[in-house]
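As the next step, I selected for study a record pairing a protein sequence with its backbone structure tokens, which the following lines show:
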Amino acid sequence: MQRTIDAVWRIESAKLIAALARLVRDVGLAEDLAQDALVAALEQWASAGLPDNPGAWLMAVAKRRAMDHFRRQERLDRKVAELGREFETAGTYDDGLDDAIDDDIGDDLLRLIFTACHPVLSTQARVALTLRLLGGLTTEEIARGFLVAESTVAQRIVRAKRTLAAKRVRFELPERAERAERLDSVLEVIYLIFNEGYSATRGDHWMRPALCEDALRLGRILAGLSPDEPEVHGLVALMEIQASRLRARTDETGAPVLLLDQNRALWDRLLINRGLAALQRAESLVDRRGPYTLQAAIAACHARAPSPEETDWIRIAALYAALMQAAPSPVVELNRAVALGMAFGPQTGLDLVDELMAEPTLAKYHLLPSVRGDLLVKLGRHEEAQREFRRAAELAGNERERALLADRTVAAGERASAP
């Protein structure tokens, strides 16, 4: 029964909290009420069995807890009347309240997403609150996913809810003029969660697939709620295609397998097809592609290629040039250097990488010396490559990636000393 309740909670919690937040106008209180309902479910479902409509049952209990709360807060007349009217019109939990949960649920979830990712919160707080409220994850699960102390995550969530209350952030969709800016924050948070799962910054595992799955679920929800937002579909496309490679990105020991060495037969064709469909949707909605749609187009080039040799590297380099125009970044330029090296030879890529060596923001970015080392190997300059791989290994925070770079350091050294 515990597993069943956990599964129900993952499915229903976001809708439940969103609907409650609309009623009580306080995200923190809404989550507390939802948690109270979960405790009641743990106590009652074990003996009484799973109700026909678990989400409606949870909502009914949470509303009763809300009424009790407002009685204690001496706001009985206004709030209880408001909740009572909805309760009376909805009927009992098993024959009508399920419809009440679904009323305006799309708007409720959008409000919850925009509230959890509000710019008044730090990025770390947005991530924690989003995974808690919309992902249905426990504090322990979030902490395990990001390799931080559970107490740290708990503090971030508590501070985030207090900040939202102190700043009087309203539980509402922002005006159209503000929505684009806020949407950028939402997409950033979802992609940050995905990236931490796709290439973990720390720890003994190169990937944390559960985080990728959580980000994909959030992205798909957002795409369903925002069907006319091209960059939402662009992000979903990017994540679907990237996630298609997860099985091929490590060997049987858990060691990383780089893109050009992966067994493409292991790539998930269903996810690739979903990603390509989302990319087509994104491109059909706008004349000029945004950053996520451009990155998805790059990922699609890899997904469509039967082998590394058949990859359209010239198109990838052109897409990175377009991405530099849409969202300039030294990291994007580094990726463009890789594509240029593949399309026009390693010296072309190395020339651009050498220009980036003086970029302050890349001073401790381990992939800069890693890319330079790879290009030097292709040019036969193995002694220089050895130094670059050693530097990259020193900078890498992930144990698996550090081991891979250490192996490449040794390999370059052996080639350098070979007659």
